[in-house]
Specification:
The protein has 341 residues and is mainly α. It has a domain of 236 residues: MetI-like (MetI-like fold), CATH 1.10.3720. Strands 1-2 form a two-stranded antiparallel ribbon. The longest helix is centred in the middle third of the chain and has 37 residues. The radius of gyration is 30 Å and the shape is flat. It starts with 16 loop residues before the first helix and ends in a 6-residue tail after the last helix.
Length: 341
C-alpha cells in the first residue's frame, strides 16, 4: 500500500481581512428584479416623471373628491359677489388679497361688494359662482371624458390591432384600409355630425373620441404583434397546440404592455385637449356644467379686465398636459431597456 501523500503544514493559512473583502467585492449584491420592478425603479430615477406622477395623483384626488373638498356649490349663483378677485387669507400680495384696480385706484373688491367675511381662493365669475369649485368640478368632467374615451381606445384599439397583426395577409390588409378611411375623416366633422343626432354634451364628445381615437393604438399594437408573433416562444406555443386566444392573453398582451401603457399616457391628454377645444368653441359641454374648456371660454370674455378668470383653468390645463407628457416620456424610457440610466 502506497504511502498517503501529506500536504505540508504551510499549505493552509487563515484568510486575512483584505482577502475576505476581495471575495465580498466579487459577489453580486443586487437582488434579481422582474421587468416591471426594473421599470418602476427606472421610473423613480426620472425626477420629471416622478413629480408628474405625484401631481397627477393629487389632481385626480381633488377632482374626483370635489364633492367633498369644494368650498361652495359650483353652480350656485351669487350676483352680488360677481367678479370678485382671488383672496387667500394671510397673503397680502396684490392679486391674492381681494383687491383690484378700478379707475386707476386699487380698491378692496370684497368690501365694496359687502362680502367682508367671505373669501374665494380663486375668485368668482360673472355670476358670482366660486371659481375654485368650478375648476375642480370642470377638471373632473374633463378627466371623466378622457378616461372613458381611453377605455374605448384600449378595448377597441388593442383588440383590433392584435387581431389584425395575428391574422396577417388579406385580413390585415383589409383591416388597415378601414383604419386609413377613419383617419381621413377629421374629428371635428365627426363631432358635428353627432351633435346633429345627439345634443351637445358629454355623451357626444365621448362617442366622437371613441370612434376616432383608437386607430393610433391599433396601428402600434398591430406593428408590435407582427414582430412578436415570429418569436420562438410564440412558434413553440403554436406547435404545442395552444389556442390563439390563450396565446394572446398569455404571451402577446404581457409583451405589448409597455406599448399600451405609454400610448395611453399620450391618449389621455389628447382627449382632454380635444374636449377643451370643443367646449371652448361652444359645441362641447353645455351650461351650467363646467369643464376646463367652458371655463376658458367664459374667462376669455373678461380677460382684459379680469384675467384671473382665465388664468386658473388655463394653469390647470397646462399642468395636466405637461404632467401626462412628461410621465409618458418617463414611462417610455423606463420600459426601454436600451435607454441609458
Amino acid at each position: 500500500m502506497a504511502d498517503t501523500a501529506k500536504l505540508p503544514a504551510d499549505s493552509f493559512k487563515p484568510m486575512s481581512a483584505d482577502d475576505r473583502a476581495a471575495l465580498d467585492s466579487e459577489k453580486i449584491a443586487a437582488p434579481s428584479l422582474t421587468f416591471m420592478q426594473d421599470a418602476w425603479r427606472r421610473l423613480k430615477k426620472n425626477k420629471g416623471a416622478w413629480v408628474s406622477l405625484i401631481l397627477l395623483a393629487l389632481i385626480f384626488i381633488f377632482a374626483f373628491g370635489s364633492a367633498i373638498v369644494s368650498p361652495h356649490d359650483p353652480n350656485q349663483v351669487h350676483p352680488e359677489y360677481a367678479n370678485l378677485p382671488s383672496k387667500i387669507p394671510g397673503i397680502g400680495i396684490n392679486g391674492f388679497n381681494g383687491t383690484l384696480v378700478q379707475a386707476g385706484q386699487r380698491i378692496d373688491a370684497y368690501k365694496q361688494a359687502g362680502a367682508t367675511g367671505a373669501h374665494y381662493l380663486m375668485g368668482t365669475d360673472y355670476l358670482g359662482r366660486d371659481l375654485l369649485s368650478r375648476v375642480l368640478y370642470g377638471t373632473r368632467i374633463s378627466l371623466i371624458i378622457a378616461l372613458v374615451a381611453t377605455l374605448f381606445d384600449l378595448t377597441i384599439g388593442v383588440t383590433y390591432g392584435i387581431f389584425s397583426g395575428w391574422k396577417g395577409g388579406r385580413v390585415d390588409t383589409f383591416m388597415q384600409r378601414i383604419i386609413e378611411i377613419i383617419l381621413s375623416i377629421p374629428n371635428l366633422v365627426v363631432i358635428v355630425l353627432l351633435i346633429l343626432i345627439l345634443k351637445p354634451g358629454m355623451l357626444s364628445i365621448i362617442i366622437a373620441i371613441a370612434l376616432t381615437s383608437w386607430t393610433n393604438m391599433a396601428r402600434l399594437v398591430r406593428a408590435q404583434t407582427l414582430e412578436i408573433k415570429e418569436q420562438e416562444y410564440i412558434l413553440a406555443a403554436r406547435t404545442l397546440g395552444e389556442s390563439s386566444l390563450k396565446i394572446a392573453f398569455k404571451h402577446l398582451l404581457p409583451n405589448l404592455s409597455s406599448v399600451i401603457i405609454i400610448n395611453t399616457m399620450f391618449t389621455i391628454p389628447s382627449a382632454i385637449f380635444f374636449e377643451a377645444t370643443l367646449s371652448y368653441i361652444g359645441i362641447g359641454i353645455s351650461s351650467p356644467q363646467a369643464s376646463l374648456g367652458t371655463l376658458l371660454n367664459d374667462g376669455q370674455k373678461n380677460f382684459q379686465f379680469l384675467p384671473y378668470q382665465m388664468w386658473w383653468p388655463a394653469l390647470v390645463l397646462c399642468i395636466i398636459m405637461l404632467a401626462f407628457n412628461l410621465l409618458g416620456d418617463g414611462l417610455r424610457d423606463a420600459f426601454d431597456p436600451r435607454t441609458k440610466e
